[in-house]
Amino acid sequence: MKICIIALRNRKNKIDNVTFELVSIARTLSDDISIILPVGLSDYKGFVQDFNEYGVKKVFVIQDEKLENYNSLYYSNGILELLKKEDFEIVLVGATSNGRDLAPRLSANLRTGLTADCTQLKINEQGKLAAIRPTFGGSLMAAILCSKLPQMATVRPGVFKKVKTETAKEASVEIINVNFENIKSNIEELEFIPKTLQNSSIADAEIILAGGKGLKTKENFEKLYVLADLLGAKVAATRGAVEAGWCQNDIQVGQTGQNVTPKVYVAFGISGALQHIEGIKGAQKIISVNTDKNAPIFNVSDFIIVEDAMKVINTLLEEATDLRYE
Amino acid sequence: MKIVVCLKQVPDTKDIKWTDKGTMIREGVESILNPYDELALEYALKIKDKIPEAKLTVVSMGPMQAKELLRIAVARGTDEAFLISDKKFSGADTLATSYTISTAIKKFIPDFDLIITGQFAIDGDTGQTPSNIAVDLKIENITFVKNILDFDNEKIVVLRETENGFERLKAVYPIMISVMKNDIELRHYSIKNYIKSFDYNIKVLDKSELNIDEEKIGFKGSPTYVSETFTPKFLRNKKEIKSDELLNLIRRN
Fold first, then answer.
1. What is the pLDDT of residue A222?
2. What are the start-end ranges of the H helices in chain B?
């Protein structure tokens, strides 16, 4: 089974971590793993070395000055030339913004299928890739197959663990030069504004207070921040809360957000669609508050409170404030 | 200048209720315009505010009931509306959907300058249909657009957000941009305009109108398919507690 993983670099010229996570999961499916690495004119040898520790057979380096920073036209053209030549059976792409931009351009050009944001990857009895993700509605998982080759999938960062191989071998390297003379991008970057350091992310928080649509209003949701301050916790949200405009998407937990592994995860007014639950599996303790006794979040919780979430939040706010002045 | 906006009708996920078996109750779930597409339309209308001679066309693919959202787009100031609808189109994955939509755009709006779409639809949530359409139309596209900063008859300047930071990008037409959530205010439409929108005849495009390759549409034209669905095994104790025990549970962690 020939698997290919596309390695994208971030703005600090480091290979995205998700690439190594993908190599690690791919190793459990096959021992024939190739990397496609588009680079600018700078030295690429360090990148290749990074892959040796992860058990990669071959690294295809596509080198051109046009590939210094990500551009979907140049990147997809360069990579497509190689994908059409090599008969990879599976192509995996990390679901970063650029990965999510690139993967559908590749799959559409190859007239093949692409499954987005998988949370599990398996090989079925027929030797096909089963790309597994929650279905819409969020109560079932679906295994998605593809009738064409290559079978393509994207996976969010943090879904799989990075595991180095014990039998490190040097990967063979092939340098590919692509002729970009006949292609000219209509898009020009005028400026890049790096993000300032974010307040420590929810990915490594010990206590998380998460809110969903059950909190009803933005004002209600924002009370979570006050409570979090009092308890030394971080606030997280469901997709629904982000959609409603109550908070930014960088605190979204779940399949299309982040995976979290806190000691305590408290879910306020969250019904528990699988897309959300996928992101909290690693929590040590899950406590949920919901008025609907059938809410699916209860099935995955260690402790449950059947009550209006706002009522509980308001009580907690009083109790936690009292504690502070004791 | 010609602008195309792609719109999708989606189930409203706001008021989902669950059965005791953990499946979603679909009855009584309303259909709404995908919230990302609502922004796409608003951006296009803002361009029309500044360049009134710009022609705005909206395109949607779905069942006949999706006419309603197109009607509202007309009430808000859209010049032309197409609904791509045929039983043969159903069961399509993103590749077959994109092929169908791009075929319609090629035939009916071939001289477009700018296509605006939502980055995601809240039901499928793959975010890949816009890029697939762009490939079929042989144009470039900019994903994860956080804001439109400037535009004229030849070019547009947008802010694209990634994990690393913001890219200020200038693109010369033809181009597609796909927009993320932003807190720009959506315009209202008057009842008068809504009533007037009924005078407008929404053009319905079926298979015969598009003279389309049948091998590439619907379920048949979709390389991906669901092989099985299953309930994940991830269950915990669900011990019921009183709310006054909660603070201690959190603090003890």
1. 96
2. 35-50, 67-76, 94-108, 129-136, 191-197, 207-210, 246-252
